[in-house]
Design brief:
The protein has 363 residues and is α+β, with helices and mostly antiparallel strands. It has 10 helices and 12 strands. The two termini are 30 Å apart. The structure holds 2-oxoglutaric acid and fe (ii) ion. 2-oxoglutaric acid binds next to β5, β7, β11 and β12.
């Protein structure tokens, strides 16, 4: 989340509600290759698939926080622009998630409409890898800052990936090579706005899901994000707990691509957004999600072999699709209700070089 100055603009998160216990990982310690921090990061990536990444105390991290604040300012303005104007830039799911999503375009679990809007920019577009997409003037006038944000976020992701390589005994650069900035991908920066909900009619705004891509860096200031605790039923409200936003930190989570590549060792955990708790529920909620997707032609097969700790796939177990086709397949499945999202991965794992033969997707 941005710095304390931005938190001070909002009512406080209540201190008397249960919250998820996320491990706090420090960017500065990952940059310094501290083994205990790397181990803690890996453990959180397997057990919960969510952790807090603290940017304070690192020059790179603090520059990123500053730019995140600029993104929050843009978020507020773009999502508060007149809806008729924004509909000129509407997104086109399932093939493109870039652009504007109007209020209520998606459904929550019980079939009622969602309660949020978003505007998503494409990394390829903003870094000049693809031909420019059309945007409202506000976004056009901030291309330089958005491009800088993509570069900063991608550099952080590459660092996280280098620790995954180390932990899984993969050659350096393996995970980063699945999502370089130089190859076209569906990677985007999503600016989300959740209007306050009327008292007496409060419910889920964004349905429970796992992220399709590899990694997400999420900033928010007010609460509302909830994660499903491991081994809990998504239909049971008691299994969902709020994540408390912390100044100077992002919430980082792993997505389904990581489960595919790691043969189920890494975890992609269900999460959803509901009304913000306490006084925070009375104000609009903004969040900022950098959603990393593998490059379009990337293989979704396991990164097994060559001494890695990832178990080899059994006959027929490997995912034969490339990332582009797999993402469309999954997006259509989720929208049509063919696929019910569930937390995946976090499977048992032997770190002493002895591999365990386990299937992908078991919970
Ligand atoms: O708005 C949030 O806090 C979460 C957004 C999210 O989970 C997503 O866009 O995938
Ligand atoms: Fe998500």
């Amino acid at each position: 989340m941005p710095t304390k100055a931005y938190f001070d603009k909002y009512p406080p998160f209540p201190d008397d509600i249960p919250v998820a216990q996320l491990t706090r990982i420090h960017l500065s310690k990952l940059l310094a290759n501290e083994k205990t921090e790397s181990d803690a990061f890996f453990s959180a990536s397997r057990k919960l698939g969510f952790f807090l990444l603290d940017f304070e105390g690192s020059e790179e991290g603090e520059a990123f926080l500053k730019n995140a604040e600029i993104m929050f300012d843009i978020n507020k303005e773009v999502n508060e622009t007149d809806v008729d104007e924004m509909m000129k830039y509407a997104y086109r799911p399932p093939h493109s998630l870039f652009g504007y999503k109007a209020l209520g375009d998606l459904k929550v679990e019980d079939g009622r409409p969602d309660r949020f809007t978003f505007y998503t920019t494409s990394q390829d577009d903003m870094t000049d890898l693809s031909k420019p997409l059309s945007h409202p003037p506000l976004i056009e006038s901030h291309r330089a800052e958005i491009k800088a944000y993509f570069k900063q976020a991608h550099s952080i992701i590459s660092l996280v990936c280098s620790h995954l390589d180390f932990q899984l005994h993969l050659p350096p650069g393996t995970f980063a090579s699945m999502q370089p900035m130089t190859s076209p991908s569906g990677t985007g920066l999503r600016m989300l706005r959740y209007p306050p909900q009327p008292e007496g009619d409060r419910r889920t705004s964004l349905l429970g899901h796992t992220d399709i891509g590899s990694l997400t860096i999420l900033f928010n200031i007010t609460g509302g994000l909830q994660i499903l605790l491991p081994n809990k039923d998504p239909k049971d409200d008691a299994g969902w707990v709020y994540v408390k936003p912390e100044p100077g930190c992002a919430i980082v989570n792993l997505g389904d691509a990581m489960v595919e590549w790691s043969g189920g060792i890494l975890r992609s955990n269900m999460h959803r957004v509901t009304f913000a708790p306490g006084e925070q529920g009375k104000v609009p909620r903004y969040s900022l999600a950098y959603l990393v997707r593998p490059f379009g032609d990337a293989s979704m097969k396991r990164l097994a072999g060559g001494g890695s700790l990832i178990p080899e796939a059994e006959e027929g177990e490997d995912n034969e699709m490339n990332a582009r086709d797999w993402e469309v397949y999954k997006a259509i499945g989720v929208r049509s209700g063919r696929v019910n999202a569930s937390s995946r991965g976090g499977l048992p794992f032997k770190s002493e070089g002895e591999k365990v033969g386990v299937g992908v997707g078991a919970n």
